[in-house]
Design goal:
Elements lengths: L1 H14 L11 E4 L5 E4 L6 E3 L2 H9 L6 E6 L12 E4 L5 H6 L4 E3 L7 H7 L4 E2 L7 H15 L2 H20 L7 E7 L8 E2 L5 H8 L2 E3 L8 E2 L2 H7 L3 E4 L4 H5 L8 H4 L3 E3 L2 H4 L4 H13 L3
Parallel strand pairs: 3-4, 3-6, 4-5, 6-7, 8-10, 8-12, 12-13
Antiparallel strand pairs: 1-2, 8-9, 9-11
Length: about 290
């Protein structure tokens, strides 16, 4: 049964959705609202508000067209010398407009930045929330189409897919290990967990694990008592939050805590083109459980 499930996951990842066709501009893509966004000409001045888009632009070999980025500790090293437009969660519309961009990647509706930019005549593309490996690949395809880099996008997708398959193959014949992916931003408050609608859940399964919170939705806050009851053998958490779990007096009886199996993985690696790196780390952690 386990081998069959893995085979289906592999097949779905390799096949993916229908590819976006390369062609001359204008190019039309669909954003996170379901709106169709038309890019009239090859973008030459691009602003990437979030680290996800900055990383995709770098991976598509289009760094020379990136004029500014949002401030983020997760930005790739290649963009650290570029000007910034304010924090990625609250970028300055005025600063963005000052760069005369012909494409902005990642501006959201939360602070009204997208509406303000679109009102100023700037083309904005923001892809849907990343909930699966496939959604990461879809985001790459969308950005690649917008940038006129479809061949580079398909090569990137092929690389990510190959690395995921290679990592997952290591887990196929092994017994499942109970695991959880927690977000514990403070040492005292109950953490949030990745449920079945999160990419973290899919990675746990691909890595040979069983998500003990597969029955909840992302992202749900759960009590310490619930974590104790479900007793995961391995807990994944952001590296900066390891001590919030490992040193929590409420969780000392949990197997993962008692055995020191709290593994740090950055959320920015999980939900990015570096997802295979996260998967490999999870595979290695789960393989270490006897």
């Amino acid at each position: 049964m386990r081998k069959a499930v893995h085979a289906l996951l592999l097949a779905g990842l390799v096949l993916g959705p229908t590819l976006l066709a390369a062609g001359e501009y204008p190019v039309t893509v669909t954003d996170d609202r379901g709106a169709r966004i038309t890019i009239s000409a090859l973008p030459k001045r691009v602003v990437a508000v979030s680290a996800l888009y900055a990383q995709i632009v770098v991976d598509l070999e289009a760094l020379d067209r990136l004029v500014a980025v949002g401030e983020s500790a997760d930005n790739p090293a290649e963009v650290l010398d570029l000007p910034t437009v304010g924090p990625n969660y609250a970028p300055s519309v005025e600063t963005i407009l000052g760069f005369s961009p012909d494409l902005v990647l990642g501006a959201s509706d939360y602070g009204g930045e997208r509406a303000a930019l679109e009102s100023a005549g700037v083309t904005v593309v923001t892809t849907p929330w990343l909930t699966s490996v496939q959604s990461i690949l879809d985001a790459v395809r969308t950005v690649a189409a917008a940038l006129g880099a479809v061949p580079e996008g398909e090569r990137l997708i092929e690389r990510i897919t190959r690395e995921i398959v290679e990592a997952e193959t290591l887990a196929i014949e092994r017994d499942e290990v109970s695991a959880a992916f927690l977000y514990a931003s403070t040492p005292n408050d109950p953490p949030y967990v990745a449920g079945s609608d999160a990419v973290e859940h899919e990675l746990i399964v691909r890595a040979g694990g069983r998500n003990v919170f597969a029955d909840v939705q992302w992202s749900s806050q759960v009590s310490f008592e619930e974590i104790i009851s479900r007793n995961p053998a391995v807990i994944f958490v952001a590296p900066s939050q390891i001590e919030n779990v490992l040193g929590n007096p409420n969780l000392q009886s949990v197997a993962a805590v008692a055995n020191g199996r709290i593994v740090g993985i950055r959320a920015s690696v999980v939900a990015s083109t570096r997802v295979a790196e996260a998967l490999r780390a999870m595979v290695d952690a789960l393989r270490g459980v006897e």
